[in-house]
């Protein structure tokens, strides 16, 4: 015996005029005399099921009358096309099988505060907006991986328990590792992906990354997912071309395949439709000049000295000058990670770029050309106060067939938040980990 439904709600159109059994949860129930309307969701979609008193047994009608929110049911009925119905179809119910009667569901249509909803995240995931956000996230991930696979990249999984820092030492999560001392949760897969690049040419890692961010912002999680392509023989300029093709392919695929989700999210899709290459580029120097001139345009945007990093208000100001994502390139070498290649013509800046999303969503990608000279890399490791011995394997990559190479990392949550038009990235991951939240 099977409990599986005949079809999913998403595929209901192929069953018009026939009898089906659907299986799902009660999203809403209203009663109008001899009619009961049950909004059924099955994960793939939502359909209105109409229970007409004279069309069912008294038991079935009584069952429909008692259905509580989020009860699990199997509903059998006739699929009827109805132009006025949201999905174009309704189900004329013949029979209802109660699988589980839910107790009083804590999330009601009334307004709840975000703290309450976050504490009930395990249930909130069922709500239509959350469902749409996480469906969009899944599409972003699928689009990113499939695009890279089609371009000849090989997925290369990197370790999460690592012996050393890669993106600064101030935000490391540490844990005891048996007799070997401290291990750190990976801040990035990059260092390892560079080893993979020397074996496969074009690789990417995709997995969770960790940063003990002690700030409470809309854009920071302590655990987030990153996709990190790395390409042998690619220069800084090649890297930017790859990024703009990659990001626009993801956005265009989401527009195609997630139209329903974007509608639920009430996303204005015009800015997304404009997201096609080439993306504008602005140097860090020009960005600083722009900030000096226009900082009054954005609240909290203060002037910067050369060498300072850009804050969220500065990114918003810069992005507002363009109609699509913008690269800010050649940041001061001193402000960036040890592995970034200094510009040979101007070593005080690095061959790196951040990609800023439009509409104030901030940095979605960080990337750079990597130092390929062993001596220079060793010098930079020392300058950053790191122990050369810990990085011998990484230096080896520069001792045996070293080539100029470049790569980048895109945060899945930041990218999803931008495409979805959601200000806070905490809703773009199923169970966000933040400074003040680890439950559920
Ligand atoms: O700019 P980041 O720190 O770059 C790296 O980690 C490089 N190793 C990537 C590479 O070149 N392979 O981080 C890259 C991206 C950011 O642009 C952002 O999208 C995301 O990762 N990110 C975060 N997302 C959520 N919460 C945080 N705390 C994040 N920190 C970075
Ligand atoms: Mg960055």
Give the structure's gist in a few sentences.
By secondary structure, this protein is of the alpha+beta class. The chain has 13 helices and 18 strands. The strands form four sheets. Strands 6-10-11-18-17-16-13-12 form an eight-stranded mixed β-sheet, with helices on both faces. It has a five-stranded mixed β-barrel with strand order 1-2-3-5-4. Strands 7-9-8 form a three-stranded antiparallel β-sheet, with no helix packed on it.
Number of helices: 13
Unreliable residue stretches: none
Question: Which distinct ligands sit in these coordinates?
Answer: 4-amino-1,4-dioxobutan-2-aminium adenosine-5'-monophosphate, magnesium ion
- SS strand fraction: 25-35%
List keywords for this structure.
440 residues, alpha+beta, eight-stranded mixed β-sheet, five-stranded mixed β-barrel, 18 strands, binds 4-amino-1,4-dioxobutan-2-aminium adenosine-5'-monophosphate, binds magnesium ion
Which helices and strands, and how do they pair?
Layout: E1 19-32, E2 35-41, E3 46-52, H1 58-66, E4 72-81, E5 89-100, H2 114-119, H3 121-124, H4 128-150, E6 154-155, E7 161-162, E8 174-176, E9 182-185, H5 190-200, E10 202-210, E11 223-232, H6 236-257, H7 259-264, H8 270-273, E12 281-283, H9 284-294, H10 312-319, E13 326-329, E14 342-343, E15 346-350, E16 352-357, E17 362-370, H11 374-383, H12 392-396, E18 405-411, H13 412-420
Parallel strand pairs: 3-5, 6-10, 12-13
Antiparallel strand pairs: 1-2, 1-4, 2-3, 4-5, 7-9, 8-9, 10-11, 11-18, 13-16, 14-15, 16-17, 17-18
This protein binds 4-amino-1,4-dioxobutan-2-aminium adenosine-5'-monophosphate and magnesium ion (MG).
